[in-house]
Amino acid sequence: MKSVGRVTYIRYLTESSQQPPEVVLLLLTIRYQLSPCGCLPTAAILDDPMECSRGERLSITLAKNRINRAPERLGKAKVEVDIFELLRDSEYETAETMCQILPKGVVAVLGPSSSPASSSIISNICGEKEVPHFKVAPEEFIKFQSQRFTTLNLHPSNTDISVAVAGILNFFNCTTACLICAKAECLLNLERLLRQFLISKDTLSVRMLDDTWDPTPLLKEIRDDQTATIIVHANASMSHTILLKAAELGMVSAYYTYIFTNLEFSLQRMDSLVDDRVNILGFSIFNQSHAFFQEFAQSLNQSWQENCDHVPFTGPALSSALLFDAVYAVVSAVQELNRSQEIGVKPLSCGSAQIWQHGTSLMNYLRMVELEGLTGHIEFNSKGQRSNYALKILQFTRNGFRQVSPGALYSRNILNDSCPVLLQENPYLMLKGNHQEMEGNDRYEGFCVDMLKELAEILRFNYKIRLVGDGVYGVPEANGTWTGMVGELIARKADLAVAGLTITAEREKVIDFSKPFMTLGISILYRVHMGRKPGYFSFLDPFSPGVWLFMLLAYLAVSCVLFLVARLTPYEWYSPHPCAQGRCNLLVNQYSLGNSLWFPVGGFMQQGSTIAPRALSTRCVSGVWWAFTLIIISSYTANLAAFLTVQRMDVPIESVDDLADQTAIEYGTIHGGSSMTFFQNSRYQTYQRMWNYMYSKQPSVFVKSTEEGIARVLNSNYAFLLESTMNEYYRQRNCNLTQIGGLLDTKGYGIGMPVGSVFRDEFDLAILQLQENNRLEILKRKWWEGGKCPKEEDHRAKGLGMENIGGIFVVLICGLIVAIFMAMLEFLWTLRHSEATEVNLRKGLNRRKKTLSHSTSEKRHKSLCADCIIHLLKYSSFSLSFSTLDFPEPPAFTDPQAEHLVHSVLHCLPVLLLFCAQPLSHTL
């Protein structure tokens, strides 16, 4: 039936203070006849009879009623939508349903929403009859190279979704991902995503669900592969099942990122996911700023409560909103078409070749439709696919999904309530003295605890410290698993590993590291071997006993040579007094045996002597001896300073090569530590030899902890290979420890994180900030310094104690005692012989006095002076046994001074004779 009509329209914008403008078509005059009842017939095919699952029937009713309540749209004409249900996804049933629809005469067919095979059959039939067909479901597979001209799809294409997924991966610089597909056709649907990975040569593993539809084995493989980014391309129900299974396996945490391509996944309930740090992303095209969206959602919610009270309402289904927009799109196109020509519906039959003559025209207007619907901007390209719409990113939070921008997604703080795992080791983590009275993080102290506080202040996150279960850093087992802190990070049991965890290539393969917060290297720790404790006679240590013996022999030899040379040379014999020349034939030699022994002693002690050599030969002997003593004294002084001020260490090894070349000293490292891995993987010959020794040594030279290694160093002949930072820490607190040689390598400590940790960059920036502010250096000084031992660089001279120079006092005291003892012997000897000596001496002096007096009276000018008399008495030839001497009577001195001198000599002669060892050999 034909209809005649004329349409005049005005387009205007209705604005809201918060909402974008909506384009509405107002029809001022409408005169046409579409059907006998004056309505716009449309058919909708629904394949889900359960109204509580989608609300599609209600959404169509809402759209129809809203349009019919606006007379400016169709005037007196009304929109009528006949709903047909498909109980099964059957080609025969679908064709039969279409054969029921075509005779009714419709302007468009809507749906179905979840039956890809049925949708394809409907599209083919509508194409043959040139009746517009609106799809509201994604293309599950591509059956034909090109879509029918009469088919329009309001659902975003898989190509657009794959482009959006690729954009997110590019934004996060993701190079490794896993794609979970429910059907093999997803490889064709996500062609653009696959092409991007092929071009960039990144890794994308594709895993298909088996016939059992159980994703558990598949998820275990992904967990073992350490893949952190998972893309799920399945329907909403299966996507939700996959996520629940992943949660059971501990794969729903901050270290995994899930991207779901199904646009209705956000409607699934996430009550079981209590960890709001999980990174779950999805997409949506809902336009919540639409004026009718809130009313639409409330209406669906009310209907849901009436029909589905056993299931909570999570939000409007996408298919219901797409059907709502499809009704509006048909009405808008019909309005546009009626401006230019008269249209009418025509009953069609499946058994005839008839077509709807206005179908092509209406399709052209449908492709030009532009309006704002519940699912955003509605517009189609030349292929009948939706274009120029906004695909919004949704992120799961504790309160459900919310729309975010990529920037907000990147800056999201997922560190709240994080669980860092630490290893108890001085000075990184220690229990406080009163830790029993405290709870939580307050029980601990140390370098890592303070650093974690600094990082928490910068990044603004909360944390709870937990100690690692087995107390080790982590080594790989034979079955491929890891122990210790590394193993807990791999299993996602911990968010951070904050300790002296060395960054190694082997660990970097299974976990992520931050930038190093401390640089160090492997060093050798050994106990200090001090020399013997200095004794009281340590001043003799600069020379060996053999040198002292040869010096004594040299002294005796020089004394004998000097005595003989002085006796042989005529130049050492001289008159004792100038005034006695010509009248006194007395010649003396100063190098007696006693003087010959005393003269070298004075030169050796650098004190000199009153005896001066006169002959060239004796001077030669003296000069050679002085040169000898100069070298000896200088060498002694130089060595004495070192021996008395420095307690030399007796270290049998001085470098790593010395350690490797011997077997007397055992050496080892911490089992499972980075130092052990260093020697195990080293290609350097010396280190390979050391590893072979450590690996084959029985009993084992490996220790379980640093404290055990320190105890082994102190209690046995053992050298400990450990990080230089720990070496420095323990040397500051135990003066019996020392470092041998320099560093064997250079490496760093870093904060460990699970693979794919999205906050690694944030920690890198925070660590760099702490380094620039010198905070890390301040913390190191706080926990490393303040030990018992002084710095090794302090070489200032120390005061000498009695243990260093006490022997000198012993020698002095012994010398004084010997001198006193000899003085007492001399006194007793003198006392015993004093009477006989005095009598004989007086007789002799009296006889001499008479002779001298007679001689003086005759020749006074020949009288001797006082000095000559002393020399005369000293060198006169008489025996030490004064009882046999027959001295002449002493002369009568005319000079009072001479007489006084003789009496003085008489009284002092006994003492002088005791010091004289030589008999008088010359007479006047």
Automatic annotation (TrEMBL):
Disulfide bonds join C735-C789. It is found in: Postsynaptic cell membrane; Presynaptic cell membrane. GO terms for molecular function: ligand-gated monoatomic ion channel activity; signaling receptor activity. The chain crosses the membrane at residues 547-566, 624-646, 805-829. Residues 416-786 form the Ionotropic glutamate receptor C-terminal domain. InterPro entries: ANF_lig-bd_rcpt, Glu/Gly-bd, Iono_Glu_rcpt_met, Ionotropic_Glu_rcpt, Iontro_rcpt_C, Peripla_BP_I. The record marks I653 as: Crucial to convey clamshell closure to channel opening. The keyword Lyase does not apply. Residues 427-491 form the Ionotropic glutamate receptor L-glutamate and glycine-binding domain. It is a multi-pass membrane protein. Keywords: Cell membrane, Cell projection, Disulfide bond, Glycoprotein, Ion channel, Ion transport, Ligand-gated ion channel, Membrane, Postsynaptic cell membrane, Receptor, Signal, Synapse, Transmembrane, Transmembrane helix, Transport. It comes from the Eukaryota. It holds the Pfam family Lig_chan. Belongs to the glutamate-gated ion channel (TC 1.A.10.1) family. Receptor for glutamate that functions as a ligand-gated ion channel in the central nervous system and plays an important role in excitatory synaptic transmission. L-glutamate acts as an excitatory neurotransmitter at many synapses in the central nervous system. This is Glutamate receptor. It comes from Suricata suricatta. The gene is GRIK4.
